[in-house]
Amino acid sequence: MVARSIHGAMRGAGAAALAGALALTASACSNPGGESGGTAAKDTAVVGIAYEPETLSPLLGYGKDGNSKIFDGLLTQDVDMKLKPALAVALPEVSSDRLTYTYKLRKGVTFSDGQPFTAKDVVFTYSTILDPKTNNPSKGELDAVKEVRADGDDTVVFTLKYPYAPFAQRTVLPIVPEHIAGKQDVNTGDFATAPVGTGPYKLVKWSKSEKIAFEANPSYWGGAPKVKKFTMAVIKDDDVRATRLRSGDLDGAILPPNLAQGFAKDKHKKTWTAKTYDYRNVTLPTGNKVTGDTAVRRALDLAVDRKAMVDKILDGAGKPAYGPVPTGSPWFAKGTERPHDLAGAKKILDEAGWKPGADGVREKDGVRAAFPLWYLSGDKLRQDHALAYASDAKKAGIEITTQSGTWEVIEPKMKDEAVLAGGGSPGDPDFDQYTLLKSSLAGDGFNNMAWFTDPAVDKALDDGRRSGDTAVRKAAYDTVQRELVMNPGYTFLTHIDHLYVVNDRWDGLSTQTEPHDHGLASGPWWNVETWAPKK
Amino acid sequence: MARMAGRRTLFAAPVLLVVTFGVFAVAAASPFDPVKAYAGTAGLTASQDNLDQLRANLGVDQPLVTRWWDWLTAALTGDLGDSSVLRQPVADVIGERLGWSVLLAATAFLVAIVLGTGLGVLAGRRPGGWLDRCVSSAAYTLEAAPAFWLGLLAIWFFALKLDVLPAGGLTDTASDTVTFGQVASHLVLPAAVLGVSQLPWFFLYVRQGVADALEEDPVRGARARGLSERTVLLGHALRSGMLPMLTLVGSRVPELITGALLVETVFSWPGIAAATVQAATSVDFPLLAALTVLATAAVLLGNLLSDLLYGIADPRVGFDG
């Protein structure tokens, strides 16, 4: 009744317009209910994502892992995460001391405003990011870069401070036009909301916390995309996203396993499961008398039932994790899988002198085998993992008290108390392992949260980072993973699959191996520019 | 009247000064860290050096008073600073969003006042009649219902069950242009919810005012002189019954602002209130301070407006003595 009165108030302003709008609402996207199919334009796609980027400026961190739609990097990654040239014409030439990387640039590429792309833009992009005045929280990823310079219009030379094997993968970072971004304040200029790039799509409009709309760049050097309009709706709530997908407002969405299951019988939609590096682990701080004890660490590593977590918490959409490297990765050290072995865990604790007390909780030299475990409040997935972990530990005689809090509460306690953490960057094995396990990074921001220290691991991490020889690197990272079995300073629990449900109206869909943060760049739409409408 | 407006404006300056300092102090005391909020998920892998550099760049390593003074002196010269969470100048944030908030709040306020007054007069005419009983009990129920709950209920019913109105946003997801029809259809639910959440107050005040006025001598006299029921009701009863409601116009403004905050969040309305929530949880000092000044000004203005209206409606009251 009230709605109608407002209708009435507005009728004077144009009932026809309103009725038209309502009709449009009903038919806007695809087939409401998803039953009929084929009514909507096949060159338009609307997808629902859960996280929104803070900025669209690569100078401030946008698109640093590629697939930024609006921009291209010097290199890009294919479906198998193999590097291939993009704005460069070939993979870089690396000097024998592994300190100089030379990129030859593609000729004839223009930004979407028509201006040519040159080596100056590459130099501008990297040197601006490395400028201390630039508020880019990810600039640490380019820590190895000492200097970047242009050699003519189509050659760029990077000089590194130290040999850094994964450097080439860092150069998927998007390149911005100097003639636009160079004329404004890097931190607050409107390039962050109205970016211009060389990429397959142009930004139409970014309504913050609502949607990001793209249109195809007809003069894209890689060929104009067939999906002409591409819109990402920002919908934080899982249930609302599922509802809008069902109502036809969306063509695709990321969903948790239980909600994705609701679309299993829908013949017009397909579910995509992406393998990931997205791990959940428990930090076992070296500074804590209980978690710093190697026997306790090894016992927890065996007592935890990873398979049950995958089945019960993730509805099967995931894999047991034994370290940051997923078991399916070529970098995984075969044979480091740990079985669920409660008896073995008890035996380790007994032999180390942790004797059961009157209440079933073990003790050694007056220290109770008990510690707190923090998880991020409101994060159901981490809460479930934390509770399952505590319950598994209880069976071995270790008492874990789970507590929830925001990062503001958790951060000051990280040195002595355990945290249910998450992360994961696909690709090079250096990325996660170095920051998690290198002893010199202990307590450095959120790096090495467990204050893990192991000289053998430190050496292997350096070897792996410095060498350009795949066999040497593989041996180094095998050493890291084997050491982690002997001294598990973190208990790794699961790697989590990401599930996407998409209308079955296009060809060419696939998924890459995905990182922990999966906003705009991941999902089956990582390469929407190569989708083709189904005949 | 002009003198009163002038005096109030002078009085507003110290109030705004105190309020902005209060905002800086409360934000500084809050456990939220502006650097963490700025860095987002990237901050979870950033090195300490990087985070310290960010802290210095954002200027949040300065003491509270320095920060406030810097902000104030810059603001007085017209530079409102840059929002760290939205990464754009505060003036742009406000310019982009204020209009949509005003549209939503004004529509809702209009709905509440017009409907509330109309229903109030009808109900006050026959207290205890069926209309009065129905509307009054509905009003008491609505008064107790939080705006965000009403919003979720409205989305569930009109957008999901009936599928006649859009569930949120300013325009359809697939549409890039802001057209009148799109905005109008997307405005219906949020404005209705916000309006309905404010309506009971106006309804109950007018109903009581009119019912009381109908018992008073001037109304009886008017009836005795044989004036038409319409003239009696609207010319006599409503005019004296309106007085308490005019006070309400001013005092409901803060409620309207907080209500808009919740409603904008529920309906993904791209207004200023949604930005307020972000600014607060990210300890975005410049944005937070500017928004607080706006909200305080709106409240002061609302009070001034209701006092002025009161003076006009009842000359005995006058303008501030």
Task: Write structural notes for this entry.
- The complex is a heterodimer of chains A (535) and B (321).
- Chain A has helices at residues 2-27, 119-130, 167-170, 178-181, 238-247, 257-260, 294-303, 306-312, 342-351, 380-395, 407-410, 430-437, 455-466, 470-486; strands at 44-49, 75-77, 83-85, 93-94, 100-104, 145-150, 155-160, 201-207, 211-216, 229-234, 252-255, 269-274, 279-283, 318-320, 355-356, 362-364, 367-368, 370-376, 399-405, 418-423, 490-496, 498-503, 506-507, 532-533.
- By secondary structure, chain A is an alpha+beta fold.
- In chain A, a hairpin with a 5-residue loop joins strand 4 and strand 5.
- In chain A, 51% of the residues are buried.
- Residues 1-39 of chain A have low confidence and may be disordered.
- With 321 residues, chain B is an all-alpha fold.
- Chain B has 2 domains: 2-90, no CATH class; 93-313, MetI-like fold.
- In chain B, 76% of the residues lie in helices and 1% in strands.
- Chain B is built from 13 helices and 2 strands, in the order H-H-H-H-E-E-H-H-H-H-H-H-H-H-H.
- Chain B has helices spanning 2-29, 34-39, 48-58, 64-76, 90-125, 130-144, 147-161, 180-214, 217-224, 229-241, 243-266, 272-281, 285-313; strands at 82-83, 88-89.
- Chain B has a two-stranded antiparallel ribbon.
- The longest helix of chain B is centred in the middle third of the chain and has 36 residues, at 90-125.
- Chain B is globular, with a radius of gyration of 24 Å.
